[in-house]
Amino acid sequence: MTNKKYYWLKLKEDFFEEDSIAWIEEQEKGKEYCLFYLKLCLKSLKANGLLIRNVGNMLVPYDVKTLGKITNTDTDTVRVAMDIFTKIGLIQILENGEIFMGQLQNMVGSESKWAEKKRLQRQKKDNVPLLSRQSPIEKEIDIEIEKDKEKEIDIEQEDVDRYVNNSEKNLKEFSNLYEKNIGLINGIAAEEIIDMSERIDIELFKRAITIANDKGKCNWGYIKGIIKQWTDKNITTYKQLEAFQLQKRNKGESDGKYQEYAKYLDRDDKTTISSEEATRAAAELGIDL
Q1: Given CB 3.0 to 4.6 Å as the disulfide criterion, which of 46, 91, 170, 193 pairs with 85?
Q2: Separation of alpha carbons 264 and 206, rounded Å
Q3: What are the two backbone dihedrals, phi and then psi, of residue 91, each rounded to the nearest 5 degrees?
Q4: Is-contact 7 194, C-beta < 8 A?
């Protein structure tokens, strides 16, 4: 099951006091430019600060009109703001037209669905009314509850940290393989890689890339097609793929044996075949009668 992830924008309390932001606010429409910048940050959260449209097999850069539409900002404001952001280094326009929000890496917060669930469980426990504490027994029970809660929080935090560390390491391996074999990760591909890293193991991903390379079709669409064929059969690890292929190969060999045996029984020389001969022929083909 995919462990859905949530993202949010984190702003330091002195965000608007930083030199670049303070200078932007000093401009005639400075506050509108700042709001537009924050909206761009939100739009690029899931794609690690990259903004570009994926139209079929093409990467289409955002123009002024489209940026205005997706951020509900008038085009004149967008045009001037983009020029300012580029000049002071808040954004970069890459070779293929992608907009890269360079400062976003320090402004992103994220939480998996699993971590959110555990956090809400802890909040729910914290909101339970306290006991009256009118008797020594109630006080003792309350102390034990607090101790158990502390232990549980420590254990849960260890689980969360372990999960996050493993997820980040896994995602990094997927991203490195993608960039090494396919190319630069765009916004749409970034989301798909995150999802894929949570559904299949890295060895299965490597195998899909190898197959695509062998066929001279190492592109993201072809690789996704290979992986979809496997996941449709509930194959999510390389070991499961090996087991499936072995089973398929054994079935094919078995079918071939029975075909040979059928040909032997149906031969045209009109000779009557005794049961001993039939059994011997089956044994030679590795068939148990």
Answers
A1: 91
A2: 44
A3: -130, 160
A4: no
pLDDT digits (tens, 9 = 90+) for 204-255: 999 999 998 988 888 888 888 889 889 888 889 888 888 887 777 666 555 5
Name the region of 48 (left: φ>0; alpha: ψ -120 to 50; beta: rest): left
Cβ–Cβ < 8 Å for 186, 154 = no
How far apart are the C-alpha atoms of 246 and 17, rounded to whole Å? 63
pTM: 0.42
Domain ranges of the chain: 5-106, 129-231, 238-284
In angstroms, the first-to-last Cα distance of the chain is: 44
Torsion sign over Cα 123, 129, 130, 131: negative
Report yes or no: 231 and 199 within 8 Å, Cβ to Cβ. Answer: yes
Q: Three-state secondary structure along 161-178?
A: HHHHHHHHHHHHHHHHHH
Backbone Cα Rg of the chain: 31
Task: Find the helix packing angle between 220-231 and 202-214, rounded to 10°.
Answer: 130
Question: What topology is assigned to 5-106 in CATH?
Answer: Arc Repressor Mutant, subunit A (1.10.10)
